[in-house]
Design goal:
CATH topology of the largest domain: Rossmann fold
CATH superfamily of the largest domain: Nitrogenase molybdenum iron protein domain
Strand order of the largest sheet: 1-10-9-8-11-12
Order of helices and strands: EHHHHHEEEHEHEHEHEHEHHEHEEHEHHH
Number of strands: 13
Length: about 450
């Protein structure tokens, strides 16, 4: 029924109601913190034994310590189980994703003369190790395996592990294993949720400790990352899926309806909004969504319905496109799709979005799987300060500087003045007359 879809007139909201509209399902993680803390402590204390226990409790999987890591046979079985056309699609996606991230790679070292005799630059090196988290609870995600592992491979990380929940049969999703193989990753471990994050933060008898963990996940995963942020680099905040379809009066309402469903079907903790200044577009999208729900399985229809009729989804009608864009920037969505005759015309006004997809030929689906740019994106409003996952998340920079003997005297003079002002005697002494005497350099 059209009236089931949540409908909001933005101009009629009070300031507190507007703020509530910007809230995400995972905004209050307190209940998850309380549940995840004992899981983290159990993994820290008991390692593999705890992972086996939690695999049984949360995933219904009977594991043993020796089966936590995927074997070569499991990789072969996964490849055999996949239809040839699915393998080709994974290969197609991998090529695009790899090429895009190769284009991001910076120079290994740069040096510039920023003042006569003063050279400064950066040396870029890969981080030592990373764990890539691939969720499974509400679907299978070989696309996430590609999006997380390939930039790490391109960046040159030598120790890459993939962690993911096992199915009830104790196996890893076949597509995920095949994607790992295509990326060149052979260390895949069956541990999901908060226990998986704890495993790579502390290390267990089987799962290696990692320097960083990346990848999206449920509120359980987000909570574990927050609690372990002083133990392991948890990267960009990537929680439940969220999207905005921004449509003007020239947009095709049925296209907008199709794409509004995409992120809403991930799960009941997703967020999905149509934002438009057109009452006509809003009305027709509202009418079309139930029709397109009929094309979904019962589970995906239920997820999408919960989102689009609940407190974190629906249709937002604004008085102008300026107001619509202001809302988009305030919301800072993970995914943003712009529909209309000239979607590029709105691009200069968009400041906060994990990704920006332009036009009816660029739906979320293509970006999620295989255009090339990374689909692991900041959620929860963090697109205001975080960027999409990229090779830069797997690289670190060291500053490099060199001062020549001819440039030194003037720099030393100025630095000594600042050191004395700040009260650092040792700093001042290091650039005092002691140095030229020791180095026998001319100071005049």
């Amino acid at each position: 029924m059209p009236e089931k879809i949540r409908f909001i007139e933005l101009s009629k909201l009070s300031p507190s109601e507007y703020d509530a509209l910007l809230a995400r399902p995972e905004a209050n993680l307190t209940p998850f913190f309380d549940k995840v803390r004992p899981i983290i402590e159990a993994v820290r204390a008991r390692g593999d034994e705890a992972l086996v226990e939690f695999a049984k409790r949360f995933d219904g999987a009977a594991l043993a310590p020796e089966t936590i890591k995927c074997s070569k046979k499991e990789f072969l079985n996964a490849e055999s189980a996949l239809a040839p056309e699915v393998k080709k699609a994974i290969q197609y996606a991998a090529r695009n994703i790899r090429r895009f991230h190769e284009s991001q790679m910076p120079e290994k070292m740069t040096m510039k003369e920023i003042h006569p005799g003063v050279f400064a630059g950066e040396k870029t090196t890969p981080i030592p190790s990373v764990a890539c988290y691939v969720p499974r609870g509400k679907g299978s995600f070989p696309s996430v395996a590609l999006m997380t592992t390939l930039p790490a491979v391109v960046a040159g990380v030598t120790k890459i592990a993939l962690i993911t929940p096992p199915g009830p049969d104790g196996a890893v999703d076949a597509g995920t294993l095949y994607a790992a193989k295509i990326a060149g990753v052979t260390d895949v471990f069956k541990c999901g949720g908060g226990q998986g994050i704890a495993a790579v933060a502390y290390g267990t008898q089987t799962v290696p400790k990692a320097s960083k963990v990346v990848g999206p996940g449920s509120p359980w995963v987000v909570a574990a990352k927050r609690l372990l942020a002083d133990i392991i680099d948890t990267g960009l905040p990537a929680g439940p899926s969220e999207s905005i379809v921004l449509a003007d009066e020239t947009a095709n309402p049925r296209i907008a309806a199709l794409d509004l469903i995409v992120e809403s079907e991930h799960g009941p903790d997703s967020s999905s909004y149509l934002v438009t200044n057109s009452p006509r577009v809003a009305k027709r999208v509202r009418q079309a969504i139930p029709e397109f729900w009929e094309g979904l399985t019962e589970t995906r229809r239920r997820f999408s319905s919960i989102v689009l009729t609940g407190p974190h989804g629906g249709i937002v009608l604004t008085e102008s496109m300026k107001d619509a864009i202001t809302f988009v920037n305030d919301f800072a969505p993970e995914h943003l799709e712009i529909l209309g005759e000239d979607p590029s015309g709105y691009l200069p006004h968009i400041q906060n979005a994990g990704e920006i997809l332009l036009g009816a030929y660029t739906p979320f689906t293509l970006a999620n799987y295989l255009i090339g740019p990374n689909a692991v994106l900041p959620t929860g409003g963090w697109a205001k300060t975080f960027s999409p996952l990229s090779v830069h998340d797997f690289l670190k920079r060291s500053s490099i500087a060199r001062v020549t003997s001819s440039a030194y005297p003037e720099l030393a003079k100025q630095a000594r003045l600042l050191a004395i002002y700040e009260g650092f005697d040792g700093h001042a002494q290091a650039v005092s007359s002691h140095r030229p005497a020791l180095l026998k350099i001319e100071t005049t």
